[in-house]
Design goal:
alpha+beta, 2 domains, three-stranded mixed β-sheet, two-stranded antiparallel sheet, 6 helices, elongated
């Protein structure tokens, strides 16, 4: 048995006759219900036809890169990144970033102390024992092309929230070799 358009249409009409023959008596092409059935049969036939093709053939257009037509994360994310995972995905969506690590870096920031009597903040520890740590500063380590930093900053600063900032560190790839000496 082959599943094609005509087979699906006949089976659909047979099913409609069995379920709704008292209310539905017109099974001709001009009936809106039959038009919907025909659209569904066409869509299923098309899917059955395409399911046998490799994904790269389905995505390619005119012999180009098959994945060039896929939408990137920048177009899919409708809001600014919120979590560190969101920021990581945003960075990896850039073509010249090969890898990236993001951490909250509150421990690397200068300690700020609150003085109760004056109701002020300062960097000097007078009457406050426990320092306040600044929030919203992310440490970003990335591997990428050497010309990437300016575009990376622009991308990050267009998406950042209020009171968020970044500290960028480019990691260099160092190749080395070692020898094992057996004695």
């Amino acid at each position: 048995m082959t599943i094609d358009y005509n087979f699906l249409r006949q089976e659909g009409i047979r099913h409609i006759e069995r379920l709704g023959s008292q209310q539905w008596t017109d099974y001709n092409t001009h009936d809106p219900g039959i038009t919907i059935l025909e659209q569904l049969c066409y869509a299923l036939t098309d899917l059955l036809y395409r399911i046998g093709f490799p994904m790269s053939d389905l995505l390619s257009e005119g012999g180009q890169d098959p994945f060039a037509n896929l939408v990137g994360l920048a177009e899919i994310l409708t809001s600014s990144p919120v979590t560190l995972t969101d920021w990581h995905k945003l960075l990896l969506d850039m073509p010249d970033i090969w890898n990236a690590w993001i951490e909250h870096s509150a421990h690397d920031q200068p300690a700020v102390y609150f003085h109760k009597e004056e109701n002020t903040l300062s960097l000097s520890q007078e009457d406050q024992v426990e320092p306040l740590r600044l929030q919203g500063i992310q440490q970003i380590y990335y591997q990428g092309a050497t010309t990437t930093k300016r575009r990376l900053c622009k991308r990050l600063y267009t998406c950042r929230g209020l009171a968020e900032d970044f500290s960028l560190t480019m990691l260099m790839i160092v190749r080395f070799a070692f020898e094992l000496a057996w004695k």
